[in-house]
Amino acid sequence: MSVPMSFDIPAQPLASALDRYGDATGREVLYNPALAQGRTSEAVKGSFGPELALQLLLAGTGLAARFLKDNSFVLVPVPVAAGSPEGSAAALTRQYYGVVQAKLRDALCRTNGARPGSYRIAALAWIAPSGAVARFERLGSAGTAELDRDIDDALRHFSVGAPVPPGFAQPVLIVVLPQASGVTMSCGATALPKAAGGVR
Q1: Do residues 143 and 118 lie in contact, with contact meaning Cβ atoms separated by under 8 Å?
Q2: Per-residue pLDDT for 145 more than 90?
Q3: Is 118:178 a contact under the CB 8 Å cutoff?
Q4: Most exposed of 8, 17, 105, 192 (fewest Cβ within 10 Å)?
Q5: Mean pLDDT of the 67-83 span
Q6: DSSP string, 5-42
Q7: What does the angle CA 72 – CA 63 – CA 192 come to, to the nearest 5 degrees?
Q8: Residue 121 DSSP SS3
Q9: How many percent of the chain have pLDDT more than 90?
Q10: Which SS3 state, helix, strand or coil, does residue 95 take?
């Protein structure tokens, strides 16, 4: 059970509020910057567990937090009810994220030095309308300069191979976690790295 902490975060632009939350809790915040644009947090003042405080901060934003095993978290849009036009678009977006994840796994597994399972890395990727990666930005280091170069090489030549659907939020935030966490995959397994930044 989370130990309550004291919070005093006024309502403000969401990106700033997430920075304040991260500073207060020491938890790393991973999210697609486009998701925070135009959104305002709720005020969080009082003593709360970190998870509850984040839920309160995100109330009304249309976003939810997905906590990872290492105490960092990823922001994703709240799922839309099935059957609505928004739900249909969300289903298409989820399907495309599934393709992104599968193709990324293949790209990492084909790059000997970047085979996943032992490192943690987050990256932003901008996907061109054709499905090719137009550019990417690795967020931090996976541990060594050589490993970073191999991951960069895999990302640079990564292609989804399918056109980007209308309204697809970019950039895509991709998080790959170590096999030991039980969250990510090794090559040949069925679990996939996590892509965030849209409804999944």
Answers
A1: no
A2: yes
A3: yes
A4: 8
A5: 71
A6: EEEEE-S-BHHHHHHHHHHHH---EE--HHHHTT-BPP
A7: 55
A8: strand
A9: 18
A10: helix
Return the SS3 of 192.
Answer: coil
Distance separating alpha carbons of residues 73 and 65, to the nearest angstrom: 6
* Structural tokens at position 143: 């541990």
DSSP 133: E
Q: Which two three-digit tokens encode residue 163? A: 């056109």
What residues have CB less than 8 Å from 85, skipping those under 6 apart? none
Q: What structural domains and CATH numbers belong to the chain?
A: 5-77 (3.55.50.30), 85-196 (3.30.1150)
Sign of CA dihedral 178, 106, 169, 64: negative
38 contacts: CB under 8 Å, gap ≥ 6: none
pLDDT at 34 over 80: yes
Residue 193 contacts residue 101 (beta carbons within 8 Å)? yes
Q: What amino acid is encoded at 189 in this protein?
A: A
Q: Which range among 88-92, 106-110, 139-143, 151-155 has the greatest average pLDDT?
A: 151-155
Query: Can you tell me the distance from the alpha carbon of 65 to that of 53, in angstroms, rounded to the nearest whole number?
Result: 11
Torsion of CA 60, 56, 71, 37, to 10 degrees: 30
Give percent of the chain with pLDDT exceeding 70: 82
Task: Encode pLDDT of 88-117 as tens digits.
Answer: 666 777 778 778 877 888 888 888 888 888
